[in-house]
């Protein structure tokens, strides 16, 4: 019998959790393999043999095919499901948000979180652009979600999965979500929709 989907990831990484959530939401059998990124797990020869880029998440399919990059993986897993809109324009809007997440959201909110929460650096030692551009990203989301239940209309899509991962952790990067009521309500809707429960800061 072929092995199920294997997900290599760090449980503290929003990018890795996206993949886990989508697999669970869609009922895709999967085995999770912890990779200790801060401890050098992605630089081990056995991991680099799977992904020479040395990054998680990484999935190995039952037939041995390997795929990396979180948003590429979740698109592959969700193809044909309700998480991807059927209408071409709505699908393009979903992809627009997913590209934006990796270019204009994750590099600021997730990076600032990593610096403060994991490396325990002082906010005064960080590049101020991380806070400025992270705030810009949250304000854009707040304006979008004021009149809309989800990022692409009234249904949960991969755009919401991609963006909720680090947005619900944003306080660990020094971003106060009390200032963003529409985002807070959206986070709750996405958590309920995915069945993942509210975020709890790891011990």
TrEMBL record:
Residues 87-203 form the GST C-terminal domain. SUPFAM superfamilies: GST C-terminal domain-like, Thioredoxin-like. GO terms for molecular function: transferase activity. The keyword tRNA processing does not apply. Pfam families: GST_C, GST_N_2. Residues 3-85 form the GST N-terminal domain. This is Glutathione S-transferase. The keyword Phosphoprotein does not apply. InterPro entries: Glutathione-S-Trfase_C-like, Glutathione-S-Trfase_C_sf, Glutathione_S-Trfase, Glutathione_S-Trfase_N, GST_C, Thioredoxin-like_sf. It comes from the Bacteria. Keywords: Transferase.
